[in-house]
Structures are given as structure tokens and as C-alpha cells.
Design goal:
Length: about 450
């Protein structure tokens, strides 16, 4: 089910030019197909620790699967763009339950000596989606139409439902008295929605009050939520974990990595189609090698973590990814398909080595009782950072298109600005990787 959640996200990215033409929406509008989905996931995932305390794993899985299946059916039959967005939101509800549930099961049942490897397997499951999603989406949309992307997921989700009901144990909840405060849920939704909506409205031509107002709402809601959480005995998500400097460094590095990854997943398919003149299938095939390498390396790097510690995979992966980003920035105005393949392989090679291990090592800084909340934090910031990355990239590309006389030249300008920003973020992530592995070298080994 987690695989379906990621593959449908990346498969739809490749169809954006087709959706723009069919539903008469612009670049900054069509990106809400991804951004809304990620916003829903980011808004609901913080509740995962509370849901784990209140419901059995089996119950959570059942609801997640049925919600996701409903969203897929809505999108497959949608005749208007707003229905597509509704379906994406319902899918986000299912994924927001499924992703943290998968990692919670790993944290609960896997021995400590194998935790890196199995967390790598969990990362592999979510990384397979970006590996095959663009190719799958491009092949389906080019040959029989984009709607069949959703049609083909139906039997996969039904199989997932049967396997999950047969295999997932109905472990008792840790607290029957746990409850969800409606105000906390509302504040989480307002915080993430406000911040991402502000970014999406920062493109050229947007009304200033939309950006400023959304930003203020987002920060105000986030500050209010944090204030409430620090004074509650059992908060929805324990933000007091951020008092630990090492844990906070891991979360920051994780956020920067995810922003870079999702920004590239938006920019590259559009660049390949709108600048290099390829179709959706060709765009998917071009990004396939890099995405596949990143996915395959996830469990391998987890095993390296178990045997050699955190420093080697995290630091080397961060530096390799940075090299790929620098390559994109230096060649952005003239970026043929061959260079895209090379630079993306380099970037995803680094992702495969370090991304999952940053989460694993970050959770190692917590006690067993804190790990459910830590897992909720990592899954939340991952989705929020993903929404931020795709929104930022869409904003920069849209701004470039508005400023130029042709969509092709505008896409080049916007992509170049995005690549430069990602290099800055990549440098910051590499610095954090050095700091966190240097601080915790003995503990992680």
C-alpha cells in the first residue's frame, strides 16, 4: 500500500503537461495534484503516534486501505479537475496512516542488530515508487491514457488488503484512553496548509496578500500548536523531542534531502518534455536508471549502517548527491538527456546511501518509548518537505514561464533557478551530515 502511495504520486508528475492541456490549468495549478496529496499526508501523519495508542494495527491498516482505494476510484472516474484533487486528498488520508504504520511495525518487532537493514527495506518499499512511477505513468498515459494509472492500482490495493488482513496482527492499543483534541488537529492542518499555500502563491503575478496572509496563518498555527504540545502530558506529537540537538540535526538534514528530491522530481519531467521535446514515456525512461539505483541501494546501505555505523553511508551519500546537484546547476541552460541521466544517477546514488540511514540514526537518539513520536515526526516532515519541494519548484518554473516569451525559455529559466537553490540546500545538508555523524560517531557505531 505504501508502494501504491508513492508510485501514484510520481506517475502523475509525468502527466502534468497532459493534464494542463486537458483541464486547461497552468503549471502552478496542476502542481496541486502533488502538493494537495502531500499536504493531507503531512497534516494527518502527526496523528500516527496517537492513533497507534488508540487503535490496533489491523484496524488502522483496514481504514488506510479502504480510503486509498476510494481515492483511486474517484480519480479514475473524474471528469473535472476539482474531482481529481478530491481523489488525491482521499488517497492522502490512506497513505498518511499506512506509511508510519509500516515503520512502527518495524520498530516494534525487529531486533536492534537488524534495525538498519529493515528500515532500509522499508525505505526501499517507498523508493520503488519513484523508480518505476515515471516510466509507468509515461507508458500508460502515452498508450492508453492517464486514467489507467489509477485503474491498474485497484487490483494491487485489493491484493494488499487481502495480505494485510491475513498477516497483520491485531496488537492491542497501548492506551484506550488516548484521544484526539480537535483544536490540535485543526492547528496542524492550518499550519501546513498555510505554509505550503504561501509558497505556491509566491509565483509571479500572485496577489501579495495571499502569500503574506497564508504565511502568517501557517506560522501562527504552528506556534500555537507547539505551545500547546509543550504543556500537555500526552500531546498529539511530542515536539519536546526537538530539545535533543542530535535528533534535531537529523530531522533538519532529512527535510533538506526531501525538498531536493521532490523538487527534482517535478523539474526534470517537465524539462525533458517542455525543453527537450520528449514525450511522457521517454521522460519516464530517462529518470528511471537514477531512481532505480536509489531504491536498490536503500537496504544495502542499511546493512552498511548495521555493520559499520552511520558516518560512512550518511556522509558519503550526502557528498555524492551534492555533486549531482552541482552538475544540474552548471548545465541547466543546456541539459541534454544524457547529462540528465548521469547527474540524476549521481544524486540518487547519494540518496540511496544516506536518506534512510538519516532517519534510522535519528530514531536511535531516542528511547524506545519515544520512538513512535519520533517516527511520526520523521514521516510528517518528510511529507511536508516533499510538498514544500514540489511547490517551490513549481513556483520558480511558473515564474520563469511568466517572464519569458515562450514556455520553453521560461522553463529553462525557472529550472536553472531551481537547480541553484538546490545546490545551496545540498551544501547545507552536507554540512549537517558532517555535524551529526561527527557528534554521534561513537554512539552510532
Amino acid at each position: 500500500m505504501s508502494f501504491c502511495g508513492v508510485i501514484v504520486e510520481t506517475a502523475m508528475n509525468i502527466t502534468f503537461p497532459t493534464l494542463m492541456k486537458e483541464f486547461s490549468v497552468g503549471t502552478d495549478g496542476v502542481q496541486w495534484m502533488t502538493t494537495l496529496y502531500l499536504l493531507v499526508v503531512a497534516s494527518i501523519t502527526p496523528l500516527s503516534a496517537e492513533l497507534k495508542r488508540r487503535f490496533t494495527n489491523r484496524t488502522l491498516f483496514l481504514w488506510a486501505n479502504l480510503l486509498f482505494l476510494s481515492g483511486v476510484l474517484i480519480d479514475g472516474l473524474a471528469g473535472h479537475f476539482w474531482l481529481l484533487l478530491l481523489g488525491r486528498a482521499v488517497q492522502g488520508l490512506g497513505t498518511s496512516i499506512a506509511l508510519p504504520l509500516m515503520f512502527n511495525i518495524i520498530l516494534d518487532e525487529v531486533p536492534a542488530r537488524r534495525i538498519g537493514t529493515m528500515m532500509g527495506v522499508g525505505t526501499l518499499i517507498t523508493a520503488i515508487g519513484p523508480a518505476v512511477g515515471p516510466t509507468f505513468g509515461g507508458l500508460v498515459s502515452t498508450t492508453i491514457g492517464w486514467r489507467f494509472i489509477f485503474v491498474f492500482l485497484v487490483p494491487v490495493l485489493l491484493t494488499s488488503l487481502i495480505l494485510g488482513l491475513a498477516c497483520i496482527r491485531a496488537t492491542p492499543p497501548s492506551s484506550q484512553d488516548a484521544g484526539l483534541n480537535p483544536l490540535d488537529v485543526l492547528l496542524i492542518i492550518l499550519a501546513f496548509s498555510g505554509l505550503i499555500f504561501a509558497i505556491s502563491n509566491a509565483s509571479a503575478g500572485a496577489l501579495p496578500w495571499r502569500f503574506t496572509g497564508s504565511l502568517l496563518v501557517g506560522f501562527a498555527a504552528l506556534a500555537w500548536f507547539i505551545r500547546r504540545a509543550t504543556h500537555q502530558n500526552q500531546p498529539v506529537i511530542d515536539v519536546r523531542l526537538f530539545k535533543g540537538k542530535s535528533f534535531s540535526l537529523h530531522v533538519c538534514a532529512y527535510i533538506l534531502y526531501e525538498v531536493c528530491a521532490l523538487a527534482l522530481s517535478f523539474v526534470l519531467p517537465n524539462y525533458i518534455q517542455l525543453v527537450n521535446g520528449r514525450n511522457a514515456l521517454q521522460a519516464g525512461l530517462i529518470v528511471l536508471p537514477g531512481a532505480a539505483i536509489g531504491a536498490i541501494l536503500a537496504p544495502v546501505s542499511g546493512r552498511i549502517y548495521d555493520q559499520l555505523g552511520a558516518r560512512l553511508p550518511i556522509l558519503s551519500g550526502s557528498l555524492i548527491s551534492l555533486i549531482g546537484l552541482v552538475g544540474f546547476a552548471l548545465s541547466g541552460r543546456r541539459l541534454p538527456d544524457g547529462l540528465i541521466i548521469i547527474f540524476y544517477i549521481c544524486f540518487m546514488l547519494g540518496i540511496g546511501l544516506s536518506f534512510g540511514n538519516i532517519m534510522t540514526n535519528g530514531l536511535r537518539q531516542l528511547t524506545q518509548g519515544e520512538q513512535a513520536d519520533g517516527n511520526a515526526i520523521f514521516n510528517t516532515v518528510q511529507q511536508f518537505a516533499a510538498a514544500l519541494g514540489s511547490s517551490t519548484a513549481a513556483t520558480l518554473v511558473a515564474a520563469g514561464q511568466v517572464a519569458e516569451t515562450s514556455r520553453r525559455l521560461g522553463t529553462i529559466d525557472g529550472s536553472c533557478h531551481t537547480f541553484i537553490l538546490l545546490v545551496v540546500l545540498g551544501i547545507a545538508e552536507s554540512a549537517l551530515a558532517f555535524m551529526l555523524t561527527a557528534r554521534r560517531r561513537s554512539a552510532s557505531q
